Amino acid sequence: MNDSDSTCASRAPKRYWNAHLAGVALGLTLLATFVFTGHGLGASGFTTALAARAAHAAAPSAADANSYIGPMVEGGRDPLGGWITWQVLGVAVGGLAGAIASRGFRWQVAGPVRVHNGARLAMALAGGVLAGFGARISSGCTSGLGLSGSATLAIAGFAFLIGFFVAGIASGFALRRLWR
User: Fold this and answer.
1) From CA 95, how far away is CA 125, in angstroms rounded?
2) Among 3, 20, 30, 86, which is most buried by a count of CB atoms within 10 Å?
3) For 157-179, how does the pLDDT look when each residue is reduced to its tens digit (9 = 90+)?
């Protein structure tokens, strides 16, 4: 038994939701979102709105002239005033509340023990940037295109989910040596 095994063994077991119940809860949340708001779930639009607001604050005329960002800020419109901002903030607050309630909250940099924290953070940033870029070019993130798209039986939603899982499996195989 090595040091990482004894460290893991000494921690109290984490209390997670039953995967089937969590899936049903997510499905009901998605259904309620469609029924009450007329659209599905999504998150990547929030970072786009945040970037649009920052671009408009830094260079208003350039942001207004940009064909992608311009419509988000035209007429003094605040892109952060939309539903997606409140959804993302709700997810963050709900996740924090859930972690605190389950006594699973702690500040840490998770990742392979053989890699120092700086490299872990760099890998997380690189993965986040790639995921964000992929979400923008595919017109949706895992929740927006994957869950909401496939819930409406959109072929793009299923194609995205298949690609997402294939990329995840390939990345897992490519990086698994770091976890051993």
Assistant:
1) 20
2) 30
3) 898 889 888 988 998 888 777 76
